[in-house]
Amino acid sequence: MNNKPSLWKQTMNKVRTWARMNSIGAIHFNSGSCNGCDIEILATLTPRYDVERFGIKLHGSPRHADVLLVTGPVTRQARERLIRTYEQMPEPKFVISVGACSISGGVFDGCYNVGGSVDEVIPVDVFVPGCPPRPEAIIDGIIQLLGELQGGVPRPVAKPKIVEEVSS
Amino acid sequence: MSIEQKLQTAEQLLAPWNKETIRPEENRLDVVIQPEALHEAVSVLHEAKWGYLSAITGMDMGVEAGQLEALYHFCNGPAITSLRVRMPRNEAVVSSIADIIPPATFFEREIKEMFGIEVNGLAVTDHLFLPEDWPIGVYPQRADFTNEQAKAMEESHVDQMPEPGRVGENTFVVPIGPQHPALKEPGHFSFTVDGEIVTAAKMRLGYAHRGIEKAAESRSWVENLYLFERVCGICSHTHAMAFSTGVEQLAKVEVPMRAQAIRELVAGLERVHSHLLWLGVAAHEAGFDTLFMYSWRDRETVMDLLEQITGNRVNYSANLLGGVKCDIGEEQSKAIKEGLSYLETRIRHYLEVVTTDAMFLNRTRGIGTITAPEAERFGLLGPTARASGVMRDVRVEAPYGAYIRYPVSLVTETNGDLEARCVVRLKELLVSCFAMRSILDNMPDGPLTARMPRKIPAGETVARIEAPRGELFYFIKSNGGEIPARVHVRTPSLCNWVSVLEKAVGRQLADVPMLIAGMDPCFSCNDRVVTVVDSATQENWSWKRLREYGIEYYSR
User: Fold this and answer.
1) How much is the pTM?
2) What is the ipTM of this complex?
3) Among partner residues A31, A38, A106, which is closest to B183 by beta-carbon distance?
4) Contacts of B89 (CB under 8 A, 6+ apart)
């Protein structure tokens, strides 16, 4: 049996990827961060860094978003909400974990109310280290993800989920 | 009145219940009282208008001592009177003072949750910081607490947030947060609404509760400096400054004047960054995205200056125990002055915008008005209080560090509405810019650090610093070791929440984001659709019916 998708499907996927590439909807979730990463994420949206030139816009609802930006170590209280927010996002969805805390717990590692890193809770595609990462670093993380979507150079951490969608 | 006279007055007032008087520091008076006498003693201090309740610190004296302590800190200018209540560990009970001082509710909920001190007469018994599934009878701040105890109930995690829905005739609960489009701290609010009008407001914190105070008790003094810097990323410098000031007081180390001046300078730049950030977010909540973009563009000027001085944009670690890490040279001084000139013109422009733009004024003028007596009663702090005409600013009341040599003037407004809060913050920036210039022009010479001992002498101290959002209160206790015995942090936001919860009631739901933004932690509400069920007929309303109801409602 031929598993290769039909030409029509291939073309449609190309169109879809092209459209997705140019209109990424992002959503931001603070799972117990100190605000440092959050203000840097906001700084990426404002005129100096202007992430909108890549077609990226912050949305209010997880249902309108493709990319989830998570900051902070996951506190026990925020854990369920993080999962719920992730589940509410439509497929395909991607997660960028921003900041040292979200990667390993950072300075808060070992605190009683901190569950650990974000990737223990939800699958993460791109990690952006730093305390807090500079806006340039956050943009670079997003661009890496975009490159991934485009079928560019494969990155070690990210899983190209669009391919999975095609085969199903 | 001098500090000494103030403390004497307090001692006389408290004489009937006084069991023991301790003078830990020059400006502090500790009065040991019985738990039963607390309510009366507090009401006497309150009636005599001796300062305001700044914080309640809980302390566990250890399993062997078998004693818990609660310290009620009253601040009056630089003078601090602490009522020290000692209780046995297994039956720690105090009576609530929230009927006299409403904002004490939050502090009482905190000591109840963290230390297991039972508070008689506390109206709200919900969790404040800890998750809903926290094991009963486990108190994280107690000396014998281990992380294993907290993990015991992890399997049975429940998310007990109220679902949106009907609670009574035509009233609904609209949940807001913890995830919301506007950023920053995750918090959950539930507003009960009747149509558009909010009839009740509730709040749930703890989404960002990490347990820093407990973690501090297992890290060295130097490590803690960087931990406390990460309590909040926006006012990181003031947190580190408060912690190091406290530790320096304990170690009796004199910080060089140049270091103090640089601390004030960085604190000033941080205030500019924080207030411009706030202005942008507030404008965003009001639907004025142009102002948001402009103020954030200008904020980058400050970020560049901070980066130039310290090497990082956020969490800049300018402080060291005993001094500062970075010097300010000729070149930097020039760059800062240029930056300040640009910012001053921009701030004047924004001052004009927030007081003349008709659209913005519709969202701010006359909304959420808090009168001066109300602000006193709610125990508001910082610009939120100063907008109501309350003269409360630690930099002026109890100058510390470089503020003695480079004073700032107090900025107050009288209207107490959201507009006044915008104006106060912006005018404050002009004052800050002025102070920063005077520092740069008269920069003292000398070393940047003083030598600090590795072990800090035993003792207790209080450090109060004016953060961009209001008075920041640190209580630090050392047992003479390499790690602190207790660090208590009371952030200004905790005191200001009351203003939102009280003022939202009776307003339209649409005003809520601005009210929340008005005190500086900023949230925004998601647009949500709730199913409207007519309580009389039990049938679901169609959009058409809902629309008709809306028109009907507003034409009343």
Assistant:
1) 0.87
2) 0.83
3) A38
4) B60, B63, B66, B67, B68
